[in-house]
Model the fold of this input.
Amino acid sequence: MKVTYQYQFYPDTNQKQKLNHWLRICRYWYNRQLGDRFDWWDMNRTGIDACPLISSISNPREKPNYYNQKALLPALKKDLVKVCHSGELLDFKQVDSTVLQDVSKRVDKTFERFIIGDSKGGKKEILYTHTRAAKMPTS
Done:
């Protein structure tokens, strides 16, 4: 017989702020890694009609993987990281390294699923929330 336990957590205001800050750091790390992988994807794709005599084909960049991106964590933990679009300073030292490594693992799984595609071999369309809301039928 398996027995499971369910716990409920009622954080106070300080704990909520700390958890939100950790979540913001993890979200930034996830988006930064995923952006790096999509940059690699865009830079290393070459059209079928690309001919080296007409246009130059650049040397492919090494594919970012779990281990390469996880190796960046010690450098990020040494100093504050400034978010470009908001100017916010994030301190990666506040979040445990195993949590950030788990974020890296999740990015790796997500991007591999994107590359493989669906069961028919097609790529899944990337929809953002604002385009999804715009395509919904109105009644």
Summary: Helices lie at 13-43, 66-70, 73-78, 97-116, 129-135.
